[in-house]
Each structure stands twice: as C-alpha cells, then as structure tokens.
Amino acid sequence: MASLGIPQNTIEVLQKYNFNFQKKFGQNFLIDTSVLTRIIDAAEITKDDCVLEIGPGIGTMTQYLAESAREVVAVEIDKALIPILEDTLSAYDNVTVINEDILKVDINRLVQEKNAGKAIKVVANLPYYITTPIIMGLFESGVPLQSITIMVQKEVADRMQVGPGTKDYGALSLAVQYYAKPEIVANVPPNCFIPRPNVGSAVIRLTRHEKPPVEVKDEKHMFALIRASFNQRRKTLVNGLGNAGNLNVSKEKVAAVLEEMGKSPTVRGETFTLEDFALLSNLLLS
C-alpha cells in the first residue's frame, strides 16, 4: 500500500473521493513520514499491543500502527471517511474501523472484547476543541491504559506538562499530571499537515501512573477545588473557593486550613502543586 505520509499519495486519495475537509471536525491530515515514525516510536508500539486510534482520518497513521501492532481499533466520527478507510486499509486484516463519536463509545467494553481487558495504548491526532474532554474521559472512565500518545496544539501540550507559577499552568496540567507522566516527544510545524493549521502542534506522550502520585480521600472533590481555584485566576484561594457555589465551603474554613498548611491567607491557586491541592482537599474534608 502506498504510504499516505507522502503528500502526493494523500492528495490522490482525497481527489479520488472528492473529499471535503470538515471544519467542525478540525480535520488536518499528517503528511510527513518522519513525524509518523516518531509517533510510533514514542508510543512504543509492539506486536503485543492493541492500539485504540482516535480520528484516523484517511488512515495515514493507521497504516503505520497496523504494521507495528497486533491489533488496531480506529474510531472515526466522519462517515465520509469510512469508504476511504476501507480502501486505504484494505491490505490489513488487523484493523477494525468504527464510525462513531469517541465520547460515546464504551471503551471499557472494547478493551474487554479486543484485548481481554488488558491495558491498551491510545494514539491520536486530535483537534484542539476536543482534546481535553477526550483525554479526561479516557482517564476518568478507568479504561485500562498504558499510555496516550497524541498530536495536539503546541500550546495545549505545553499546558499539560508545566508546573506552578507559569502562565500555562492550570486545571489541565494538574489533571494530566495526577493520572500520568507527560512528555513532549516532538514539535510539529504547520507545513506537516494538509490543510495547514494556523498553529504549531506537538506530540506528547502521557504514560499512565500505576497509582496517582498523591493520596486523596475524594478525587472529585480535589478536582472541583482545582477548577474553582483556576476559574478566577486572579483571586486568592480563600475568595475563589469561598465563592464557588458547588463547594459549600466557607472562606473562614479555607483560611483556617491554609493556616494549618503554613500557607499565606492571600495565596493563589496558581502557586499550588498537586501535593498542595491534595492536602487542601483532604483537610477540608476532615
């Protein structure tokens, strides 16, 4: 099968099927074989692996995954791409294509069926607007995962791996770092895609922690605190949490717990580490 990582081959397939790019799906197809190889290497795909690919597009990366993995399940939302995928993946008998919205797929059931419930690897080239719901959905649903290797907007990749005190630090950084170890493995300029996006992209690998780096009584409570403290970045934690209707916690209580932690009453959420938030949550619940 001709590699779709070569721009000419991608253009031929798109012309053959008169394919129109859908803005609503954020479609940008990768046309750079060296980037494709780096994604496969970063994801450490072997013949033992069952891989879930989200958003295969015309099958560019799917071909590479099929060569390296035991089994690939590719979930594609755009039904116009299904006949193209049947064509570009016709040489591979280890690929299953599902025409569905990944946020509606029962991934746990899929993992049972395809991998006997053992941990899978996820690989994806994700549009900007849906990156966070997909990643958080994978982590929070408790799907058995080894790693997620994804192409995202550069700024989002940066946000996932930064620490306190930086402007990109926020709820996404903390959530990702609670569940996984993030590592940017490649920066990818706009000219590696068709059509060209307006922004740079990056490939980031999130390696799932065996167990979270902090012990917390109630995960949901901790994340509600984190969200409330970044919803109003400029506010002190006392005000940000005291004003958050869903937390039912008084400013006095927050101030008392901060004092117990040895923190200033004017401290802001953006200076708190994951350990700080875990302790804050545990103390507020005690």
The SS-based structural class is alpha/beta
How many helices? The count is 12
User: What is the CATH C level class of the largest domain, in words?
Assistant: Alpha Beta
Percent of residues in helices = 25-40%
The largest sheet, given as strand count, sense and whether it forms a barrel, is: 7 strands, mixed
CATH superfamily of the largest domain: Vaccinia Virus protein VP39
Structural domain count = 2
pLDDT under 50 segments (min length 5)? none
Strand order of the largest sheet: 4-3-2-5-6-9-7
Q: Which percent band covers the strand fraction?
A: 15-25%
In angstroms, what is the radius of gyration?
21 Å
Number of DSSP strand runs:
9
Global mean pLDDT:
93
End-to-end distance: 61 Å
Would you write up a description of this structure?
A seven-stranded mixed β-sheet has the order 4-3-2-5-6-9-7, sandwiched between helices. The chain is built from twelve helices and nine strands. The longest helix is centred in the C-terminal third of the chain and has 13 residues. It folds into two domains: 202 residues, Rossmann fold (3-Layer(aba) Sandwich), CATH 3.40.50; 67 residues, Helicase, Ruva Protein, domain 3, CATH 1.10.8. Helix 6 packs parallel to helix 8. With 286 residues, it is an alpha/beta fold. It is elongated and about 65 Å long. It is 40% helix and 18% strand.
